[in-house]
Amino acid sequence: RNYARLAKIPVLEPSDSTDARDFLVAGMDISEKFKTPVILRTTTRVAHSRSLVELAERVEHEPEGFKKNPPQFVTIPAWARPMHVKIEQRLLDMAAAASVSPLNRIEWGDKKLGIITNGIAYQYVKEIFPEASVLKLGWSYPFPDELIRQFAAGVEKILVVEELENFIEEHVKSLGIACDGK
User: Fold this and answer.
1) Strand pairing of 157-161 and 110-118?
2) What are phi and psi of 161, to 5 degrees?
3) What's the distance, CA 143 to chain centroid?
4) For 166, which DSSP code?
5) CA 2, CA 171: separation in Å to the nearest integer?
6) What is the rounded CA–CA span in Å between residue 137 and residue 157?
7) How far apart are CA 107 and CA 123, in angstroms?
8) Which pLDDT value is given to residue 69?
9) Among 5, 67, 78, 98, which is 20 to 30 Å from 105 by CA?
10) CB–CB of 142/135 below 8 Å?
11) What is the 3-state secondary structure (H, E, C) of 8-63?
């Protein structure tokens, strides 16, 4: 996730086998729409899990092929500055898209406790706190700030449950939203 922040590219984090299939398709669509690589971040627990997955209809795409475009791919100083402006705008556009994406969703429950989570941690949260309101972040970077603010406004207390580093917790706090995490 930190590599994605440094590279300014999106991260999708599935929580089960069905998510993994759906997020792969969504990741390819995001990649084509925003002209960027996408990280599909799975964990060992998700990769080794088994569950029923309903197959979708195969959709054929005609490959466009590579088109030589040095101002888009070659970072010499004359082209690097305009490229940086485009990348920053793309990041804002992706954050707006993430806020309305079906990969991120609010599951309202008891509004005394709201939990922001992603990946396999979502499965643990649903098992341990089935009554809590949950914000599941499948498209976890760039952060869907509007969705996070909407969720925070609807609950009394926020808990961030995530693996490893406090990546989401740090960002939620940077938005001025009080939360507990690690």
Assistant:
1) parallel
2) -115, 115
3) 7
4) -
5) 12
6) 18
7) 13
8) 85
9) 5
10) no
11) CCCEECCCCHHHHHHHHHHHHHHHHHHCCCCEECCCHHHHCCCCCCCCCCCCCCCC
Q: Which residue has the tokens 């996730």?
A: 1
pTM for the whole structure: 0.87
User: CB-based burial of residue 156 (10 Å sphere; 0-12 exposed, 13-18 middle, 19+ buried)?
Assistant: exposed
Measured at the alpha carbon of residue 90, what is the angle toward residues 159 and 18, in degrees to the nearest 5?
A: 50
**Rounded to 5°, angle at Cα 106 from 31 and 130:** 125
Tell me how far apart the alpha carbons of residues 140 and 164 are, in angstroms, rounded to a whole number.
14
Give alpha helix (H) positions in 134-179. Answer: 145-154, 167-174
Tokens standing for residue 95: 């954050």
Closest CA to 135 of 163, 170, 161: 161
One pLDDT digit (tens) per residue for the chain, 182 residues: 899 999 999 999 999 988 998 999 999 999 999 999 999 998 888 888 888 888 888 888 787 788 888 888 888 888 888 899 999 999 999 999 999 999 999 999 999 999 999 999 999 999 999 999 999 999 999 999 999 999 999 999 999 999 888 999 999 999 999 999 98
